[in-house]
Amino acid sequence: MLADQPPFPQGAAFEPAFANYRTLSQRHLQWRSNGWTNESVARLDRFAGVFHSVVQRAREISRHVADFNASVLIACTASPFDLPACTLIALRRRLPLITYLFDDPIYQWMPGPLRTFARMWEPIWSRIATSIIVPNEAMQEEFAARRHRKAIIVRNPVPAGAFPKIEQAWPAIPTEFRIVYTGSVYHAQSDAFLNLLRALDTLDRWSLHIYTSQSDAELKAYGIHGPKVCRHDHVDQAESYARQHSADVLFLPLAFRSAIQDVLRTSAPMKMGEYLASGRPILVHAPPETFIARHIGSYRAGFVVDSADAMQLADALRRIRSHPEERRAACQNALRLAQAYTVDRARQVFWDVITAATDRDAERHA
Fold first, then answer.
1. Which fold has domain 2-157+344-365?
2. What is the pLDDT averaged over residues 228-244?
């Protein structure tokens, strides 16, 4: 596996390493700025700089591909340079190319030279790729509308540790109700958190607990602070699962107003599968067109508030508290849906894609 920042150590402490990792250089990943005053010339200069980075990236990856004696090339969307670079390598080495789209390959980049370049390259790599992998139905639909190809869904996998071994009481502590969020907070969710805090101002004995590596000051910069907010230090993955299993409500937010709404519409946060597997009620607060609101709502696997209304959030929390049958039904639906996110399921679909690509390539060269 080649990456700018490979996992270290190889694999998480509770999972075996699944690959040999090599670090790719980032020294060429930039675009030139020669100070042109003419905007058309400056745009061409930036574009040439991006293409130069792609060529340099392709040369570096190609050397590793030769060392591995690879029979298939899988390109992911973590970098704006990797899809076009791997396209060049696949053409040169006549390797089957599989593209794995963690996020929208165009709209994940801010408007400017990177998005323009990504938009130009999508028709090229999508035509050359043997298969395209996406994490959810929303991205599958989006890609089919743009490129008239059906992508294959490999859901973000959930390890066995995310599933609880025993059913815990609700609420976990009889005298309070704890809403839990695990992970980083940034502009992709910040206004949804502010709506939740306004809802909590109207409720007794409810509090928000955030487990994150971010500091109190960083959360406060987004307006997330106050007497009902408890920030906890980052915990490892196994402990994160334990916190999720004991939560009274798991909060799954996406922003209603941000600079990346096009990306959020097809986003599938990694924690969603963990939340589904937790056996605890999920509160989704996200726009109605987002995948998480549509997905969890259609399976009745959680409580969805799809308008930026703090009072609706407060009503949802009261319903979770006062309607135990509805709460249990949502948790059971979530656990059933979580079976589609298991590691075994994702692994099987992934390797089916690889096998099909190598079989077709063998037939082509027979």
1. Rossmann fold (3.40.50)
2. 96
